[in-house]
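Team,

Forwarding the record for the chain on the shared tracking sheet. I've put the sequence and predicted structure together so nobody has to dig through attachments.
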Amino acid sequence: MKTLQKIMIMLTIGLAFSILVVFFTTSNVAGSNNETVIRFGHGAAESNERHLAVMKFKELVEEKSQGKMKVQVYPNEQLGSEAEMIESVTFNDLQMVAASAFSQYDQRISVFELPYLFDSYEQAWSILDSDIGQQVAKPLLEDGLRVVAYFENGFRHVTSNKPIEEPEDLGGLKIRTPEFPLSISTFKAFGSNPTPMAFGELYMALQQGTVDAQENPIANTYASKFNEIQDYLNLTGHQYMPLPVAISEEFWQTLTPEEQEIIKSSASEAATFHRDILRDNEEKMISELQDAGMTVIQPDRDKFREKAEAVYDAYKNRFGEEFVNSLLKEVEQNQ
């Protein structure tokens, strides 16, 4: 009996050891095949243009490196919320992320989200790709986050179950916003009741009436099928929000100059790809949302702009008046 027990114990130990060997040899692909593996997370659905852009980045990196660099993509918050994924990048547990929640590390990155800062996509892209874009992102290096490109998040609009034609229509409305101070401040200025929550919780929150409305770019509203639970698409265009793509600085420093250039150039090309498809598809998505039953409202944006002036006053104190004024001057010159 004791002999049988010993045999069973030895077999169990052997099986456990075999599992460990398989785990480490398959999980550490870089060591066995001399490949550089990049784990890249984002929060959008696989039907979203963001995912297509990240897959474009994967295609470009693997092509330019002749297969020596591999990109593993994790969409749809598989690895946690945006904030959690960014934190993982700071520890190099995750190598890259495309997300919006960087203001938890340095609020200046959210300066581009000031309400009604930009009038067009082209104006926004011109600023993001200038020295200002790099200047704003530089402080994130202190937390191990290197921004290599700005993907597209687009102009944000409100969906609701009643028409929103002027700020007063938002009065008291419980609206989901991202957990970003500037988004919360903007909707407080509009008179609504901003309710931050993770994007992954939003559909159910709207369905159950936890919140009355939400605001997002058209692509997010379309991909998440908010038309199934919201009657009105109100084209407020209240904020433009870029999508910084960051890589772990710790990981970056392990790369050769050639590998770094492959990542930078691929991220830049993927950003252009993302911007183009999002802008080109937006009118089509609005039309399809209408066909699916949503009513599209064109609000009086001038009235929203007036309410937003209070946000500028507050954030000049927070970001620095000189910095905000220099940005506004640059934006005006790029009209």
